[in-house]
Amino acid sequence: MLVLGGGLAGIAAALDCAGAGVEVTLVEVRRRLGGAAYSFERDGLAMDNGQHVFLRCCVAYRALLERIGGAHLTTVQPRLEIPVLKPGSQPTLLRRGALPAPLHLAGALARYPHLTLAERAGAARAALGLMRLHEGDAALESQTFGDWLARHGQGPRAVAALWDLIALPTLNLAAAQASLALAAFVFRTGLLSGADAGDIGFHRGTLGQTIGAPAERALREAGVEVRLGWRAERLAQSARGVEVHGRGARAEHGEALEELSAEAVVVALPHARAATLLEPLLGEEARAWRGLGSSPIVNLHVVYDRQVCDVPFAAGVGTPVQYVFDRTEAAGAPAGCQYLAVSLSGAEREMGMSVDLLRERYLPALRELFPRAREAKVESFLATREHAATFRAAPGVAALRPAARTAVPGLVLAGTWTATGWPATLEGAVLSGHAAADGALRALGHTVAAEALR
Q: Exposure string (b/e) for 306-320, b if CB count within 10 Å is 16 or more?
């Protein structure tokens, strides 16, 4: 069988199918694995394209890291703690307590200084209201999270200081634009389902060290043929199953298209690319995927000549800085320097800003949050942009997300944009890969579910 795409979804699908004894070839257009979670080198520093975190409840992603040998480069908080910084205010800590959910957050909310007493009480009532929403209720897909919060007494200040702290990094959209159904899923699953579900996990190494390199080793050890620098250009049905026509790394020297065929093909590509590739086979169904849209992420990479930040990460309130991470050790920054990565989700405005404008806006904002940055020299400042980092988690998106299996026998889909129930997260990517492997194995006549082989 064939897997098109070497991101987390494709990696998970290939490993599952190889574990079932199937001969698997995985092709990836880039010269590395990891998909949207990757690293690069700049000025001698190893940098990640984005700051991908996960939660303790992300069991599929954590299990995949164990499987490929990357888990030792991650860590999970023993207890949820989010340092919150606001210009002109003392740092505060949102920390869960020892009580069972949802009472585990009551103390943190009661002491949260960026809301009034009345706003804190209102936020608690809104959280209880989220728990009472019925999963699968079609009405949740027709409204925004922001509208629902407003009807439940949450004003703009409460949304900015509390609800968007979670909505932006998980949905890649602000509450005002995000689907209520997906927001309710995130808050219930990550914060309200269990006391420890929302404990945050971090990658201590770079994404290349944690995902890309170990995944390639694990795939090859499992017997998967991995072809990097191979681009799929056309798919067609054949007597054997599905044909994939593409060009390998040597095609740039004028070589002709190469043809690969298999009884089952997993297409683990971004939705816009999958729509273009599969429209000749699936017609209107594939064209509809373009309606999923996209939401961008911008990351700013700032290297100071001294330490200015004392916490491993922090959220910002009353500042354009959404989240900031200390990546000094992982990047291999020079002695005495500190490398901070600023993650900006739902960053449509920032996508249109030049590096100079981003620098003018965000360096003063960082100085407001970190007083020692006022005296520090900025050794390096650069921006990385993911134009289509995720699908747009807006109302109505659920109807556009396809199941793994398609109408074409042996053709299966994977990716965060498929119907996993999760927003576009690391966990959703891995779950989609498992679902695709299950569909591919069934198409091949395997009666053992992929889940039993993991």
A: eebbeebbbbbbbbb
> Residue 128 corresponds to which tokens in the numbers above?
């209880």
* CATH number corresponding to 36-93+198-205+295-390: 3.90.660.20
Q: For every one of its 454 residues, what pLDDT tens digit does the chain have, with 9 covering 90 and above?
A: 999 999 999 999 999 999 999 999 999 999 999 999 999 999 899 999 999 999 999 999 999 999 999 999 999 999 999 999 999 999 999 999 999 998 999 999 999 999 999 999 999 999 999 999 998 898 999 999 999 999 999 999 999 999 999 999 999 999 999 999 999 999 999 998 899 999 999 999 999 999 999 999 999 999 999 999 999 999 999 888 899 999 986 545 555 689 999 999 999 999 999 999 999 999 999 999 999 999 999 999 999 999 999 999 999 999 999 999 999 999 999 999 999 999 999 999 999 999 999 999 999 999 999 999 999 999 999 999 999 999 999 999 999 999 999 999 999 999 999 999 999 999 999 999 999 999 999 999 986 655 655 6
- What residue segments make up the domains of the chain, in order of their start? 2-29+229-292+394-453, 36-93+198-205+295-390, 97-194
Tell me the backbone φ, ψ of residue 416, rounded to 5 degrees: -60, -20
Q: What sign for the dihedral angle of Cα 23, 213, 267, 190?
A: positive
* The CATH number of domain 2-29+229-292+394-453, selected from 3.40.47.10, 3.40.800.20, 3.50.50.60, 1.20.120.420: 3.50.50.60
